[in-house]
Amino acid sequence: MSANMEGFEESRKGKEIAVDTIKPGKDHLPWVEKYRPDTLDDVTGHEGVVTTLKKLLANKKFPHLLFYGPPGTGKTSTILAVAREIYGPSYKSMVLELNASDDRGIDVVRDQIKVFASSRQIFQRGGEENARSNFKLVILDEADAMTNVAQNALRRVIEQYTTHTRFCILANYTHKLNPALLSRCTRFRFSPLPEAAIDKRIMQVIDAEKVKIAPDAKAALLELSKGDMRRALNVLQACHTGLEHPGKDTITLSQVYLCVGSPDPADIDTILTSILNDDWTTAYDTVSTLKRERGLALVDILEKLSAELMALNLKEKTKIALLSKLADIEYRLANGGSEKIQTSAAIGVIKDSMELEV
Ligand SMILES: Nc1ncnc2c1ncn2[C@@H]1O[C@H](COP(=O)(O)OP(=O)(O)O)[C@@H](O)[C@H]1O
Ligand SMILES: [Mg+2]
């Protein structure tokens, strides 16, 4: 085992207890940072990706990499874990992290890469055994935000520095990336995380932070995160911090809905019942009160409301009328229409369309 690997093993041992005990100096960090995976084994839900990466790491021919997939699925965390595995705890000096969205142009990127790639590695030991770490790593985050021109230039940069540098490109969508750039990298897809994978990590955090959460609230948290671990952790922390006595009180279902900004199904039921049964003024009062109390936006209400309406046993023509008119309202809202007027309109539309049922 190389010296670097030993360093890695040690840091990993340190980590296993770290999930249970609160890391000193990390208490002030948001949970997404505090519990960012340190090793590839901490990355949940991407077993195939992790296995292949481990094989590549064992193999001395490390390729350029492309990680793509929606936000919060572990792209940045995974490449940082890889870097730690290659270079050990002092990996930072061997890694250049560039974010395509805040670097002004390809010239800046090119210069930074040039300086980084050509500076000598201080602790380079050489020798067959350490051949794996004889390259430096450039991480290009949000590369799909780069212009086509910049991507073309990047292609040349990659070729120029391949002898001593490996690139890892992180992106949300591959269709925004230049095909020539794509063809130079080994691709890994980071799919939205399955609920079980989010659950596994969340449970570690719940234990470490002594969070109390009701089973139905946790189930909703997993579902509403839609495969985004960052979202799950942020919502969990927001709910936990929002409690009057964190650690003593239990996080409830409605609190999770509140933190996500998604309407509680119980509230949607109240709204629908009121629109269908009460007169217009009462219905309007119900909706505006709930909107104000729960801090909801009409678009979010409309989304849930239309799903609920479609689940009812209605005539086809009623459903068509509802959908097309609610879609108009949604469109107007997206274009800056007034919440107040559109709320009234939505109630009117539902009441009107329901007339078709009789
Ligand atoms: N697969 C995963 N396993 C464990 N934690 C994860 C995973 N994906 C995301 N996270 C958590 O979510 C946060 C955001 O992940 P990150 O790697 O920055 O996502 P991305 O780069 O894909 O947007 C991390 O700090 C980590 O705590
Ligand atoms: Mg990222």
TrEMBL record:
Q: Which Pfam families does the record associate with it? A: AAA, Rep_fac_C
Q: Does the keyword Transport apply?
A: no
A single GO cellular-component term on record: Ctf18 RFC-like complex
A GO MF annotation of the entry reads: DNA clamp loader activity
- Which biological process annotations from GO are given for this protein? DNA repair; DNA-templated DNA replication; leading strand elongation
Keyword vocabulary terms for this entry: ATP-binding, DNA replication, Nucleotide-binding, Nucleus
Q: Which domain of life is it from?
A: Eukaryota
Annotated coiled-coil positions are none
Q: Which SMART domains match?
A: AAA (SM00382)
Q: Does the keyword Amino-acid biosynthesis apply?
A: no
- Where is it localised? Nucleus
> Where does the protein principally reside?
nucleus
Q: Which residues form the AAA+ ATPase domain?
A: 61-195
Family in the record: Belongs to the activator 1 small subunits family.
Q: Which NCBIfam families match?
A: PRK00440.1 (NF001679)
Q: What is this protein called?
A: Replication factor C subunit 3
